[in-house]
Design a protein that fits this description.
With 302 residues, this protein is an alpha/beta fold. It contains nine helices and 17 strands. The protein binds adenosine-5'-diphosphate and magnesium ion.
Length: 302
Amino acid sequence: MGERVLIALGGNAMTAPDGSASPLDQRRAVERAMTHVAALISQGHQVVLTHGNGPQVGNLLLKNQLAAEVVPPVPLDWCGAQTQATVGVLILNALGDRAAVVVTRTLVDLADPAFADPVKPIGRYFSEAEARRFEQLGQTWRAFPGKGFRRVVASPEPLEILDAPAAIALMEAGYTVVAAGGGGVPVARRADGSLTGVEAVIDKDAAAVVLADAVRATVLVVATDVPAAVAGYGTGQARPIGRTTVAELRELQAAGHFASGSMGPKVQAALRFAEGGGRAVITSLEHLGDAIGGGAGTVVGR
Ligand code: ADP
Ligand code: MG
């Protein structure tokens, strides 16, 4: 029986194992990831893909900064749109026939408290002098002791995947669809109802759940670089979590077992999807085939 699977690809599906993101690194990583995805498709599952874009946006921001005197820097939402296209094209080339990329906007609320307290670090570390210069341009920078200064931006809640209808139409026409890359290009509604891009980043795991609901996925796979979420991660009592319940996973989450910038959002996404009636799996790409049936990774729901 074919499932409709929403796969959220993490950084390791798009960069070298050491995090390097040269064009060749990205192409190789995507090609490797797509061999696993293609295997699923050939087994009769319907696949919708989404992906992160942290290293790719980091590269674009650096280019913006280096070339600022020559070419006007483009806003963060443009960077998001550009990475949807470039990662998307790598995925299309690797998958071959009947795949499509949807440039996807995600609606956020300008009243989201995240805008008043930007905490999501993006791009590389810089010196204090450089951070101060960018602050003059209206950006928010924070000191990370021992590492330097890094730009921080708002990471608001994704409310709606605005281009989900286009993704659904392509999916129903038999395409393997790539959508909401990097969590989607963040846009907000002005008072007059019109849409405008905003300087923010959207957590790709949070957006993946909204997309999974919109396309009525039966399974959400959060594909990362570990075979499962781990309780007691990094301690002597580390224990990979297999089949679990919403209640147990919530309890572990509340007890602080999942780091906020990495495993935390994945567990949160899995919980939300499972609570909506679907099956969520957190695992690595190598286990994708087994994960669909709930036979690998951290499995919650249905
Ligand atoms: P991706 O780039 O694939 O989206 P991240 O790097 O953000 O993923 O998150 C995956 C990483 O989370 C793992 O490589 C691991 O280092 C870290 N991590 C933190 N807490 C946990 C945990 N409790 N269980 C498993 N991995 C964890
Ligand atoms: Mg990562």
